Amino acid sequence: MNFKNLMVIKALVCFAFGILLLAIPDRLLSIFGATLSAGGMFTAREYGAALFGNLFLCWFAKNAAESDARKAIILALFVYDLIGFIVTTITVISGVLNALGWLIVFVYLFFTLGFGYFLVKPPAVKSA
């Protein structure tokens, strides 16, 4: 998979979850076995807003050439997805989310591995 495809997939996932978390966070999270208080609704909607930030970052940076800025974007998204993977794994194991929560873990793992690959991948050699 190339960088552009990874960024487009990430943008689409952020759009799907972002819009649902902004519009119907209680219904979305009930699918995964979670219930939300008023504070949880606020936090879920704030997370939906953050996903829209990731959406725009990924969409507009999808064609970024190799540079320090691109490396910083990759590092930031790698750390974000790694933390999401760890937190969601713990949340599923502890029983806060049901077995469908493993789907969210898988999504975070996919992006952690994807951005991790681009983090360690040597830069492309430009031919003369």
Descriptive overview:
By secondary structure, the chain is mainly α. It has one domain (3-120). Helix content is 77%, strand content 0%. The chain has 5 helices and no strands. The protein has helices spanning 3-23, 25-31, 38-61, 68-93, 101-120. It starts with a helix and ends in an 8-residue tail after the last helix.
Task: Supply the key terms.
single chain, mainly alpha, 5 helices, elongated
Write the layout of secondary structure elements.
Blueprint: H1 3-23, H2 25-31, H3 38-61, H4 68-93, H5 101-120
Helix pairs in contact: 1-2, 1-3, 4-5
How many strand units?
0
Q: Write the element-wise H/E pattern from the N-terminal end onward.
A: HHHHH
- Percent of residues in β-strands: under 5%
Fraction in helix: over 70%
* Oligomeric state of shown chains: single chain
Low-confidence stretches: none
Q: How far is the first residue's CA from the last residue's CA?
A: 25 Å
Structural class: mainly alpha
Rounded mean pLDDT score: 96
Looking at the structure, what is the overall shape?
elongated
Number of helices: 5
* Largest β sheet strand count, sense and barrel closure: none
Gyration radius from CA atoms, angstroms? 16 Å
